[in-house]
Amino acid sequence: MRKVLVTSLVLLMFVIVALGQTSNGWQVIKLEDPMTGQVTWRAYSPITYSLQGSIWAPFVILAFDTNGQYELVSLIFEFPIKNSEIVGLEYLTNSVSLSTYIRWDNLNPNYLILWRPYNESNYFLYLMDGKTYTIKPIIDNLMKYNTVTIQINLASYGLLYYKIPLTGSKEAINTARNNVKKKW
Question: How far is CA 83 from CA 77, 121, 135, 162, in A?
């Protein structure tokens, strides 16, 4: 049941994103858990296709989520990606992780850790800086640069690069943070 709910919520988010993208910039949406009432604000990028141009490779959205206590940055895929699909994935005690590369604008690539709680398939991979093992440098850079390119190797598609525009990301992240403070 929970899997169906998560799948439905992700698909709904993609429909909302597709219908609501009247500009090339980032957008903000309020997400509310129907069972707990917990509110999360999401700032998200436009839908981005891989630079390889394959119509079969999944498209992604880069998202910043905050609920007032936690902040996460995630790469959200069009459809669930099984752990067995991700080349180079390391299995840890309660999660899986992947060391890969991230590039801000035209700077030299940096190490990036993509991770998620351990389960067979999921729409999300969370981002963490590969040097500090924290999220802060990722968020700071989302608000500072114009583009970010993320590398991921999927067994069925090969090495994929997603160049995600960051136009409006600073404003969207600030709006999400400010909305969390308001009582709606």
Answer: 13, 6, 22, 19
Pairing of strands 95-104, 158-165: unpaired
CB atoms within 10 A of CB 139: 20
Distance CA 151, CA 82 (A): 17
Measuring CA to CA, how many Å separate 105 from each of 57, 95, 146, 165?
Answer: 23, 30, 6, 9
Helices of type H across the chain: 2-20, 136-142, 169-181
pLDDT at 157: 92
Domains and CATH numbers, the chain: 2-181 (2.60.40.1880)
Q: Give the end-to-end CA distance of the chain in Å, rounded to a whole number.
A: 29
Dump pLDDT digits (tens) for 46-101.
999 999 877 788 999 999 999 999 999 999 999 999 999 999 999 998 999 999 99
Helices (H) and strands (E) in the chain, counts: 3, 10
- CA distance linking residue 9 with residue 31, whole number of Å: 9
pTM attached to this predicted model: 0.84
